[in-house]
Amino acid sequence: xxxxSNFIFFYHIFFTFTYIKITLNAFRVDPVSNYLWSLxxxxxxxxxxxxxxxxxxxxxxxxSLSYYSVSIIxxxxxxxxxxxxxxLIKKQLNNNLIINKIILILFFMLPSFHLWxxxxxxxxxxxxxxxxxxxxxxxxxxxxxFLGLILFLIFMIRPHxxxxxxxxxxxxxxxxxxxxxxxxxxxxxxSSLYILYALPVG
Length: 202
Known about the structure:
Blueprint lengths: L1 H25 L3 H9 L10 H14 L4 H26 L5 H10 L3 H5 L6 H16 L6 H14 L1 H17 L5 H18 L4
């Protein structure tokens, strides 16, 4: 629905500008620190905070974008995540029931849900990544490369979440009837090798 999608998009962008104002007034907060640090030349590309700083570095240092511009870009990441998530949830609900529509809209209007996914930081990117993972689960053709990229992105943002999520998605592929046998066999072989490697020696 065009009206609903636009409402969610601009509702989230409103929180992006609110987030910018809050963080600039507070100043000594992670989003501002990430941006200021990105204007130097960070050499660490490790998962977590370093990865976020590197992404901000691309926009802030190489593209010479201001704090406002980079915050809006991260806000757009969050907006896209919300639009994907909303469209998928809506498809799975019985839209004939008014109560379902009301609950869905109220859920997607939760201020804290939008605020923490509307600016520079892990939350906007991790929410987009999880929405893409949910989108992948609902596609007919399960593209393994696309899944790998999603899991890589999640791992680089929040490693512990990727470690929890990966086995669930692998199990989902194994029990899915439409998954090609070669993919299932490859997963079983790789999983077995990983278990053997992870087992303590002696």
